[in-house]
Automatic annotation (TrEMBL):
<dbReference type="InterPro" id="IPR023296">
    <property type="entry name" value="Glyco_hydro_beta-prop_sf"/>
</dbReference>
<dbReference type="InterPro" id="IPR052176">
    <property type="entry name" value="Glycosyl_Hydrlase_43_Enz"/>
</dbReference>
<keyword id="KW-0378">Hydrolase</keyword>
<keyword id="KW-0326">Glycosidase</keyword>
<keyword id="KW-0624">Polysaccharide degradation</keyword>
<keyword id="KW-0119">Carbohydrate metabolism</keyword>
<dbReference type="InterPro" id="IPR006710">
    <property type="entry name" value="Glyco_hydro_43"/>
</dbReference>
<dbReference type="Pfam" id="PF03422">
    <property type="entry name" value="CBM_6"/>
</dbReference>
<protein>
    <submittedName>
        <fullName>Family 43 glycosylhydrolase</fullName>
    </submittedName>
</protein>
<comment type="similarity">
    <text>Belongs to the glycosyl hydrolase 43 family.</text>
</comment>
<dbReference type="InterPro" id="IPR005084">
    <property type="entry name" value="CBM6"/>
</dbReference>
<keyword id="KW-0732">Signal</keyword>
<dbReference type="InterPro" id="IPR008979">
    <property type="entry name" value="Galactose-bd-like_sf"/>
</dbReference>
<keyword id="KW-0858">Xylan degradation</keyword>
<feature type="domain" description="CBM6">
    <location>
        <begin position="348"/>
        <end position="474"/>
    </location>
</feature>
<dbReference type="Pfam" id="PF04616">
    <property type="entry name" value="Glyco_hydro_43"/>
</dbReference>
<dbReference type="InterPro" id="IPR006584">
    <property type="entry name" value="Cellulose-bd_IV"/>
</dbReference>
Amino acid sequence: MTVQLNQAIGKVPPNGNPVVANRYGADPYALVFKDRVYLYMTHDALEYDGSGAIIENTYSSINKIAVISSCDLINWTDHGEIRVAGPDGAAKWATQSWAPAAVHKVIEGKDKFFLYFANNASGIGVLTSDSPEGPWVDPIGEALILRSTPGVEDVTWLFDPAVLVDDDGKSYIYFGGGVPEGQYAEPGTARVMKLGEDMTSVVGTAEVIPAPFMFEDAGIHKREGIYYYTYCSNFYDGERPEGSPPAGEIAYMTSNKPMGPWTYHKTILKNPGHFFGVSGNNHHAIFQFHDEWYIAYHAQTLSKAQGIANGYRSTHLGRIFHNEDGSIREVEADYKGVQQIKPLCPYQHVQAVTMGWSAGVKTAFEAAAGERVVTDIDSGDWIGLAGVDFGSKGAVAFCATVISLEDGGAIELHLDDPAGQLIGELPVPAANGPVKQRELKTEVKGVEGTRDLYLVFIGNTGTPLFQLVSWQFMQ
C-alpha cells in the first residue's frame, strides 16, 4: 500500500534534541539508577481560552510531573505522569507541582526514591517511592519547606529544589529564587539546608548562597571533591558590573563544602533564545552517566516547530566538560544532542512507548494492557528507534502485542528511514467486537548489523488504526 508519511516535528532524525516529540517537558531533573537515567519534568500541557485558541502557558494548572527514561540517551521510554498535587494527587495539600528534583538513597538496606517539587512558589513538598517509576506517596502530609522554616522567611520564591546525597550519606537541599525590590545584583534568595536522614525532614537553619544576579533554578553536582552550585541569572536590563552573569544564563559557583562558602565563576549556558530563536526562562540539571557528564535543559523548540511556542517547553541534552582545574567549559546548545552510548537490543521485550523519533502518535495508559501504550495511530504515522543491533545473524521474525480497534491496519518495518528498506509487514486485524489485546507475528528478511528501525503504521485514513503495546524480533 502506498501511504503518505507524516513528518517528524521538533525532534527530526538523526537529531537527539528535543529528547522526545510526543510530549512537552520543562525544568528537567536527572536521576541515574542502575543502567538508566530518568528525567523528571514539569508537565507543560497546552492551555486554551474560551474559544479554543491556545494561550500563553500560565503554569497555574500544572499538577503533574512527567517521567521518561533511557539507557542510551537517544531512545526514551515514556512513563507518563505522576499525579502530584490536587484532589487526585499524592500531595492533596498542594495545588501545583513545578520543577522537580529526584534522588535515590539506600535506607536500612533498601532502595528508596524521593521526589521533591515546588507548590508554585510558596513551598516545597516531597513524595517517596520504592521505584523510580512509582507509585509515589506523600510521607508527611504537608510541605517539607514553608516560610516558617528557619532561614527562608525572606526568600521571594520558595521553589526549584535540587538535592545532593553526599559520599558520607548526608544530604542537602538547594532551593529559592526571585528578586526583592531593586536587589538585582545581590538578591540573596538562594538557600541550602541539611536534610534529615529520612530525606523527608529538614535540619537546622537554611543558609544563604550569595549568588550574583540570582533568579531561579538551583542545581548541584559534586566532582572530584568540588561542589558546583548552578543557577539561572535574572533578567535585569540595566548595567551589570564586569564579570557579572548576563541575563537568563546558567551560572556556577564552587565550594569545597556542601554548604559553602561559595566562589562565583562564570556562566556556562546562554539563554535558549541565543541558540533556538525563542527565549524564555533557563532551567537545567547536571548529572553523570557512565563516567561522562551531561546537562539537561529546556527550550521551546517543539512548540516553536508546531507554531505555538507560547511558553511550552521541551527537554534537551548536551555534554558538560570539566577542565583539569575544575572549571566548566561553555555549553553549545543544539538540535544534534548527545551520542547514543549503547545500541538497542531488538531481541528482548521492548515497550512500544520507547521511541527515538516519532510522527503523529501519542501515548496513554491503557487499562486493557495494564501499561502505557502508543495511541492515536493514524495511517502514515510512525515511530523510529536509533541504533538497533540486529547482530551478524540477523532477525527472522517480528512479533508485536497490539490492541485492535475498529479498522485495524498494518505495521511496516523499514530500515534507516520511514521510507527506507522494507524488511517485513505485520497485518493488524480489525477488532470485530470488544477491544482486546492480541499477539501477532510475521517473517522478516534482509536485516543484520546495527540500523535505525522505523515502525510505519498504515491503514484507512481518518480513523485510529490500533494501539501498540510492545514488540520484539526473533533470531
